[in-house]
Design a protein that fits this description.
heterodimer, A: about 260 residues, mainly alpha, B: about 350 residues, alpha+beta, Rossmann fold, OB fold (Dihydrolipoamide Acetyltransferase, E2P), 6-stranded mixed β-sheet, 8 helices, 20 strands, elongated, binds adenosine-5'-diphosphate, binds magnesium ion, MetI-like (chain A), Bact_Polyamine_Transport (chain A)
């Protein structure tokens, strides 16, 4: 069983280990043996206009996606935890569906819907698609944030003279903020790394992964792509680790167990 | 002056009738308790007064004003929640000052009244302590201070002592009583502990299944319970069937009493401490019956004897002080028991 697990992990992550290896390799061909250490591929990165503009597009899309899916996630998670309403289970199931649906299906069906509606696709449609696939993650994180709040705390605030709105700002928000930040970071990361939806639903402005993919056709660009990929992996790991740390800190603060979660 | 007045209040949870036609008047400055077994609707009634539960019919008035359209944040009530609901992201002083934001007190005045409130509940100097660094008893005090600092007309307490251990609970019972006398605010306490209600309250409403079974002061409640159910819920009540014969009542095991026959009476009750066991050499007094000790429980200061009588299926409990030189009787000993007719209460069922 253990050997199995190791084999699985190596198979899964070996390519990621190769990424930095070739990113620092002083050769235009991606092949062993390694030729020597260089940072020139990294230095070249900011000098390619198409690349920097795709980074900018990606960051913009990821930021808006993160904010949107977190706001919608707060509403959905709060409703799911605090209120009983008819059709709650099917509705929540529907929202969580993109979690198990292949992205290609989400992408193609959204494309069909947008085109049928006569809408021209662009960054906004990528944001819509990304929000759809980020929502389940946002909701799961925020669900546990809300679940960890004793309902009596919000009632106590009302009892002490605050309105429902000011209670949200004075009590609810401070108690869910680690979850809120975690949700923002994870949604941002998912959107930043996502390829299929971005590929299908973007038009003239490619996102970073789409740009990366387009460069794979040019063998001489490969080392630069490797450098970019390395940065992307590092950034993603950093953001996810930060998100998980915050989520755990939030749970610990509420005196809860820190088991479970995505990471 | 009537502080809280409920009339004809009803409340359903889905099909469950949680409050059934509650009529209740609570006086200003009173220490009032809602007492009843778990699930009888005490919390629901308290939350209705606080404004967290809507009522379907009937009216609720606080200090003469109808509360139908008044949300919890604008009611002159404050609540100490069963879980205490201390804000975990705020320290003790910030918790206590939470409700003062909308007051017209200046910052320095707020600091002063928070300090006074903490002193009143015995948490002087705890202001900077983090909320999750408090013990159960301290959390309870913070919750009290946080509510009292707003000088509400009514303080609502939902089983505030049930999470504390026995020693601390007994201490807090006295302290709460002292605090209530000191501030003069109407306290409404929810409890399932009959002893606690007796110790602390001016008046007690006993609730069963969403209804008020009896409302009285502690002594009346204990000595003259309105029904067998109330009598058995509060303290120990020996219950014996009553037969009607020739215009008189005859109590199983104890015999005929001088009370005239009443068709409605079916049982008689008597408290353990109003009966006594006559030790060898003691002369007869009051009414005397022959009995036999079936069981006993030794409590140190007291011994509780279970005695069997001819003509009575159940046993009677008699409590005896363990006075100096008084022997503890063995199981199986035949004894005489002494009781008084004026200690009897009669029940319809
Ligand atoms: N939010 C609710 N939804 C459905 N039933 C409830 C709710 N709150 C209380 N009940 C039911 O109403 C009854 C009275 O509850 P409660 O007032 O909490 O009793 P108590 O405080 O006397 O133990 C119980 O049977 C309980 O199950
Ligand atoms: Mg209760």
């Amino acid at each position: 069983m253990r050997a199995y697990t190791w084999a699985y992990l190596i198979f899964l992550y070996a390519p990621i280990v190769l990424l930095p290896l070739f990113a620092f390799n002083d050769s235009t061909t991606i092949a062993f043996p390694l030729q020597g250490f260089t940072t020139k591929w990294f230095v070249q990165l900011p000098t390619i206009p198409a690349l920097t503009s795709s980074v900018w597009t990606s960051v913009k899309i990821a930021s808006i996606t993160a904010v949107l899916s977190t706001i919608l996630g707060v509403c959905a998670a709060r409703a799911a935890v605090r209120y009983r309403f008819i059709g709650k289970r099917p509705i929540m199931g529907l929202i969580m569906l993109p979690l198990v649906l292949p992205e290609i299906i989400v992408a193609v069906s959204l494309l069909v819907v947008f085109l049928q509606l006569g809408l021209s696709i662009g960054s906004w449609s990528v944001i819509a698609g990304h929000t759809l696939i980020c929502m389940p993650f946002a909701i799961s994180i925020l669900n546990s944030s809300f679940q960890n709040i004793d309902p009596a705390l919000e009632e106590a605030s009302l009892d002490l003279g605050e309105t429902r709105v000011s209670t949200f700002y004075r009590v609810t928000l401070p108690l869910i903020w680690p979850g809120l930040i975690a949700s923002l970071l994870i949604s941002f990361t998912i959107s930043l790394d996502e390829f299929i939806i971005a590929f299908f639903l973007s038009s003239t402005e490619p996102t970073l992964p789409v740009y990366l993919w387009s460069q794979l056709r040019f063998p001489t660009k490969l080392p630069v792509v490797m450098a970019l990929g390395t940065l992307l992996v590092c950034l993603s790991i950093l953001l996810l680790a930060l998100a998980e740390t915050l989520r755990r800190r939030g749970l610990r603060k509420a005196g809860q167990s820190t088991e479970g979660g995505f990471l | 002056m009537t502080m809280i007045s409920l009339s004809g209040v009803n409340k359903h949870y889905d099909s469950y009738h949680a409050l059934r036609n509650i009529d209740l008047d609570i006086e200003a400055g009173e220490f009032f308790s809602l007492l009843g077994p778990s699930g009888c609707g005490k919390t629901t009634l308290l939350r209705t007064i606080a404004g967290f539960e809507d009522i379907e019919s009937g009216t609720l008035k606080i200090a003469g004003a109808d509360m139908a359209e008044v949300p919890p944040n604008r009611r002159p009530t404050n609540m100490v929640f069963q879980s205490y609901a201390i804000f975990p992201h705020l320290n003790v002083a910030q918790n206590v000052a939470f409700g003062l934001r909308k007051s017209d007190l200046s910052k320095s005045e707020q600091t002063r009244v928070v300090g006074e409130a903490l002193e009143m509940v015995g948490l002087d100097g705890f202001g900077a302590r983090a909320a999750n660094a408090l013990s159960g008893g301290q959390r309870q005090r913070v919750a009290l201070a946080r509510a009292l600092v707003l000088k509400p007309k009514v303080l609502l307490l939902d089983e505030p002592l049930s999470a504390l251990d026995k020693k601390l609970r007994e201490q807090m019972q006295l302290e709460l009583r002292r605090l209530q006398r000191q501030v003069g605010i109407t306290f409404i306490l929810v409890t399932h502990d009959q002893e606690e209600a007796l110790i602390m309250s001016d008046r007690i409403a006993v609730m069963f299944e969403g209804q008020i079974a009896q409302l009285a002061d502690p002594q009346t409640l204990y000595r003259a319970p309105a029904s067998r159910k109330v009598g058995e819920f509060i303290g120990t009540m020996n219950v014996m069937p009553v037969a009607q014969n020739a215009g008189n009542l005859t109590i199983a095991g104890l015999g005929q009493v001088s009370d005239p026959a009443r068709d409605t009476v079916s049982h008689a009750g008597i408290r353990p401490e109003t009966m006594s066991i006559l030790f060898p050499g003691e002369p007869d007094r009051d009414r005397v019956a022959a009995a036999k000790i079936v069981d006993r429980a030794y409590y140190g200061d007291m011994t509780y004897y279970e005695v069997g009588l001819d003509g009575l299926d159940n046993t009677l409990t008699i409590s005896m002080k363990n006075l100096m030189g008084r022997e503890i009787l063995e199981i199986g000993t035949p004894v005489r028991i002494s009781w008084r007719e004026d200690a009897l209460v009669f029940f319809d069922q």
